[in-house]
Amino acid sequence: MIEFKNVSKKYKDKVALSNCSLQIPKGQIIGLFGANGAGKTTFMKCMMGYLNFDGEITLDGEKIDGSNISKLSFATGDHSFFPTITANDHKWFYQMQFPLFNEKRYEALMEFFELPTNKKISEFSLGQQNQFEVVLAISQGAEYIIMDEPFAGNDVFNREDFYEVLISVVDKDETVIISTHLIEEIADYIDRAILIRKSEIIDDLSVKEIEESGKTLVEIVKERYDYRADRINRAIDEMK
């Protein structure tokens, strides 16, 4: 289990996370939702140990460091691959670095996305690069697979098909955390929704709680974010 205890993060005078406490057990697919700048990426980077922060984040009761970081994988829009080598070269490198690397899963996902294996990653399109980042994260052999807006540059058909593949290949002890703005697309595939607003966790809902509310996840998010349905008409009227 990953546990956040009173985690806060500031960038100079800007508060990115404020006193966040949360438990993330194994075996869940979690959607992390929030507006731009809400703190989603900071939340993930703190979890990975990429940023200094106040508070505590532990994995099975231990601080996340070099001894257990391989239990986490991260697909980020910043791209953590090596652009001048091929997909096959990455496969070899990951097999050397991660003893639990799942070659069968890697090959199946490469075929699913129709990605070339002997082409430099710098020659991939943006969509292909994001797909490849996801392939590496899911194949690493990590217990916690963290993905930050993994489908930028991908069409709706690829995204929907991938959700189906994801829930089919992920083991019962693996946890997937996906940060995305595509709430409607992913709502049917997650077990839990975590909502972040202005640096704070404002809701943590199971699928059962969402169903019992009688509302869709999109409706809940709009309500919790004080969405103003008249904002479009007001903007149009002001421009006339």
Keywords:
alpha/beta, 36% helix, 25% strand
Task: Please write out the topology.
Layout lengths: L1 E10 L2 E11 L4 E5 L6 H9 L5 E6 L2 E2 L8 E4 L11 H11 L5 H11 L12 H14 L4 E5 L7 H14 L5 E5 L3 H4 L5 E6 L2 E7 H7 L3 H8 L6 H9 L1
Parallel strand pairs: 3-8, 3-9, 6-7, 7-8
Antiparallel strand pairs: 1-2, 1-4, 4-5, 9-10
Word description of this protein:
- There is one protein chain.
- The chain is of the alpha/beta class.
- The chain has one domain: 3-Layer(aba) Sandwich (Rossmann fold), CATH 3.40.50.300.
- It is 36% helix and 25% strand.
- It has helices at 40-48, 87-97, 103-113, 126-139, 156-169, 183-186, 207-213, 217-224, 231-239; strands at residues 2-11, 14-24, 29-33, 54-59, 62-63, 72-75, 144-148, 175-179, 192-197, 200-206.
- The protein has a six-stranded mixed β-sheet with strand order 6-7-8-3-9-10, with helices on both faces. The protein has a four-stranded antiparallel β-sheet with strand order 2-1-4-5, with helices on one face.
- Helix 5 links the parallel strand 7 (144-148) and strand 8.
- The longest helix has 14 residues, at 126-139.
- The radius of gyration is 19 Å and the shape is globular.
- The termini are far apart.
- The model has no long low-confidence stretch (mean pLDDT 88).
How many domains? The number is 1
Could you tell me the radius of gyration in angstroms? 19 Å
Q: In this structure, how is the largest beta sheet organized?
A: 6 strands, mixed
The assigned structural class equals: alpha/beta
Choose one word for the global shape.
globular
CATH class: Alpha Beta
By DSSP (H or I, 4+ residues per run), the number of helices equals 9
CATH topology: Rossmann fold
Helicity range of the residues?
25-40%
Order of helices and strands: EEEHEEEHHHEHEHEEHHH
Spatial order of the strands forming the largest sheet: 6-7-8-3-9-10
- Please state the second-level CATH architecture: 3-Layer(aba) Sandwich
CATH superfamily: P-loop containing nucleotide triphosphate hydrolases
Distance between the termini: 54 Å
- What's the overall average pLDDT, rounded? 88
Poorly predicted parts = none
Query: Total number of β-strand segments?
Result: 10
